[in-house]
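Sequence in, structure out.
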Amino acid sequence: MHLTAIGVNHRTASIEVREKFSISKEKIRDFLKRIDNYEGLNEVVILSTCNRTEIYAVEEESGIAKNFLLDMVNCKDVDEYLYTFNAVDCIRHLFKVSSSLDSLILGEGQILSQVKAAYTMSKELSTTSTILNTLFNRAIATGKAVRTETKIAYNSVSVSYAAVELAAKNLNGLQGKKALIFGAGKMAQLTVQHLISHGVEKIFIANHHIERAEELANKFNGEAVEWSKAFDKAVDVDVIVTSTGAPHYVVKTAQTIELMKRRNDRKIFIIDIAVPRDVEPEVSEINGVILYNIDDLEAVVDDHINQRHEEAKLANKIIEENVMALDERFKYLSFQPLMASLSERAEQVRLREMHRAASKLSNLTAEEQKIIDNMTKMIVRKILRLPMKNLNSSAGTAEEKFYTDAMKALFFNEVIY
């Protein structure tokens, strides 16, 4: 059995690559239902966010989980962008992810809920068992501990905050400005909040489902806009922020060229914080358009990260303590079925021989029967003590396979090739 994590994130791949790995919840659910088609893939959890797509798996041999992931995203020749973590490194990686130490924005709070959601989906579809259930429950607990026992999240920035900061920097402040938001989800709501706190005068919200746009607009005294009329409002705004989660571009080159003509090439600032991207890349080449995507937010993030480096050290200490504890547990977990079977086999022999002896010792008192019963239990326990000890000691070492194979061959008549 191999515990492994394979994926891409903002450190290994640009947004152009990451958006190819972006997977909808529906597609993840569909592929998890097909796990039986991948022989040797015993447990799976898929985590897909705007900055990472990862598979956590228990596989019988290396490579099965990777094939599952690549089939799901339908990508080839991407090895240079993939990272792999095995065994204890896999544990450590997930703990850092759930604690936001591996996020683009150190201390951001959304990743923990995303880890929970990914695990919950897999558990509901029965693609997790002992190993991943144990791993993810401990990872979630570790993420919570880091947030409560350190100040890693204190004054942390979010993607939406960084986007608004970037707009304010490029437009010499946002006081009295107008903004158009594509999307009405959680990220869009956070963006609206930050825009208002920066003094934006008017906010227009466009969404395919006008009801959701109206709901968000009503919260912040904004104006909901029908999707088809969004570009009419864009004629007068200073900044556009896109965050739709659509699988295709919602701001295209041709319509943006027409928009700029109507604006007389008056400068417009567009920030695309969606993955996959909402704005066609060629839009950046249009005169008067300043386009940024989520990867461009790193400079804003760097301005705030130094404040949380010391807290990150404390967080890493918490993580390492939990990693070592879980690694120790996992070392013995893999042997438990074998050890339980060995104990059960020995107990069957003991009870059988006790039954035979009892038929010849019919005059034994209850106290004498109890003494013999305890004696035979102690004999079995002492005989098994050294094999069990050696089996446990071999966990995680080069001798592990030797001892497990030997136990199976000696006690269970399993031929090992």
